[in-house]
Amino acid sequence: MMQKLWPVALFTGLASGAVAEAITVDNCGEPLVFETAPERIVVHDMNMTDMAFALGLQDKIVGLTGITGWYKTSPDFDAQRGDIPELAPKYPTVENLIAVEPDMFFAGWYYGMQPGGEVTPDTLSPFGIKTMVLTESCVHLSKDRPEASMDLLFGDVLRLGQVMGVEAKAQELVSGWKDQLAAIEAKTADLPKPRVFLLDGPADAPFTAGKFAIPDAMIAAAGGENVTHDMDTSWGRTSWETVAAANPEFLVLLDYQTGNGAEDTFQFLKDHPVMSQTDAVKNERWIGLRYEELTPGPANIEAIEKMVKAMHPETN
To answer: Residue 184 half-sphere exposure, CB side, CA atoms within 13 Å?
Structure first.
């Protein structure tokens, strides 16, 4: 799916005769209109922050939310963040946001907002705050969405670049990523496609990626088949019996960098009564990837390359 970008509309100023430019982008199927580029933005979560950093928007960011409450940041992330304050370590409140008077909040459903929750586009609108919604998360409001593709990354970077007036930089980034992706897919096109299962940490019921989550597209790009592709959601839960019945040959383990990280998750699977019988566990075929590598963001492309090297060692 290529993210539908609404055309830029031009409006003529009535009083001064000056030409003002309004920017309209798609926002979960609805138009999101900015009369001028936002000067003050708040960004939620590491993956969306990485998009903003990649576009060089630090001077526009007046706050971040949802970073240190869940994740360990890298030295590179910290260097790029500089002295940008974190307004809330997990989900923000309306008060957290209006305190810094942003023009725009970049977040998503279950990425800083919950349907019917305190912070939504409707609750922020009265304060003059417009909300750009992460496209991957739109499926939580409507199932009438295309299945995941890498356009979930490309489209959102292009939207953010368009809104913030750095469209050329966004185009340059996306063009480079597409070239990298084409080279990866050419390398794996004729190879056998192992059955792949992604696990978001030990749990009574596995939390994983369905057909609308970007890891589904990443696994396909890396030359594998997601065994939970038929799940009619982005991120959601299934049963261990269902996963074991699919007999995955390779595992992608989300690494929150706590304890021994993905090593602990793999040990959980080795001790699990049904998952221990799968080919992936018996043959110890897995890779650990960080949160920002498995949610829509600039780290996706390098993460796909890591998957290829681990999944198809004959290409190394």
So the answer is: 27
